[in-house]
Amino acid sequence: MQKELFSVLWTDTAFQDLESIIDHIALDSIDSAxxxxxxxxxxxxxxxxxxxxxxxxxxxxxxxxxxxRELIVTPWRIIYRIEGNTVYVLSVFDGRRxxxxxxxxxxxxx
Length: 110
Known about the structure:
Layout: E1 7-10, H1 12-26, H2 30-45, E2 55-56, H3 58-61, E3 69-73, E4 76-83, E5 86-94, H4 99-109
Parallel strand pairs: 1-5
Antiparallel strand pairs: 2-3, 3-4, 4-5
Helix pairs in contact: 1-2
């Protein structure tokens, strides 16, 4: 029996998040930046086979918003949602940040 594969698509916002993280780390160490980039991309690529592996985002679950999941690559959080056979990576941010503050700032800036 063949396992169903999902497409993993990065939104512009998520890609910009990742680019910003890597650029910031590269100021101190290009090797560390490349390592972190690979770790985040490799972890997100596992969603092609196991899209439900991530937990529901706890801060959103508290408000009964259950369609967003996350993977952790300490200290970063990869936020995504599944629609049909597609996984959309929506955001990558430092897990030490407050999710509500991050979402509010993004909504205000749009």
